[in-house]
Amino acid sequence: MGDTALVLVVGGLAVFAGAIVQGGVGFGLGLVAVPVLTMLVPDLMPGAAQVVNLVLPLFTLAVEWRKVDWRGLVFAVLGRLPGSVIGGAVVVFFTVQARSLFVAVMVLLAVALTARALSVPRNGLTITSAGFVSGVTGTATGIGGPPIGLVYQSAKGPQIRATLAMFFFLSAAQSLLVLAYVDELPARALLTGAVLIVPMVLGFLVSGRLRRYLDGGRARTAVLVVAAASALALIVQNALTQGWLF
């Protein structure tokens, strides 16, 4: 199987699975797909992932846009603006592996701290801070969901999904502009991302059952589980890349 076919099949399956998770939880596309895509096409990341991140939220918003927390969204975007600039610098000066490991450690710490409390206070300061961290990690690695997801974990499922979808759409557009500005957005990344939109759409279409299940009061647990699992996947990915396990 050639490299292109491998990306389309294996990467497509990862995007498909990630779209199912994000369609139900509100985030998770990058968490599931980015580790796989980084192993397959590290030179095209995070640009390829951001193309898919730009399109998927539109499907969620088409269904649940009325549930967006507009006030919280403003704080999140204000925090993300400077965060994305720093994320662009991180892309230039740090390797993909170093960026991914950094994100994984931060997410695990956040999950551990959050799991010990009933919820993270959701106010202007926490949302802005989460937006800032998401700007750094999202631009640098393609994974910007956990910080915002953890802040909104106590909200109802539709509000989590709608607010995060609007935030991710704006975030992906901003990250793509930053990556293009620092010359880290090759045409092949855009093409690969465009091709992966097909399995992304299919994944979202089958996520309806998961949405109904999580809306029965299980959204917070799902957020924590998805965030922790994604961080562990990034750590394993780095271990395999560096040959630590073999």
From TrEMBL:
**Where is this gene product found?**
Cell membrane
Name the membrane topology term: Multi-pass membrane protein
GO CC terms: plasma membrane
Q: Does the keyword Chaperone apply?
A: no
Print the keywords alphabetically: Cell membrane, Membrane, Transmembrane, Transmembrane helix, Transport
On whether Membrane is a keyword of this UniProt record, the answer is yes
Q: Which residues are the signal sequence here?
A: none
List membrane-spanning regions: 72-94, 100-118, 162-182, 188-210, 222-240
Q: Record's family?
A: Belongs to the 4-toluene sulfonate uptake permease (TSUP) (TC 2.A.102) family.
Name of the molecule in the record = Probable membrane transporter protein
Origin species, per record, is: Nonomuraea fuscirosea
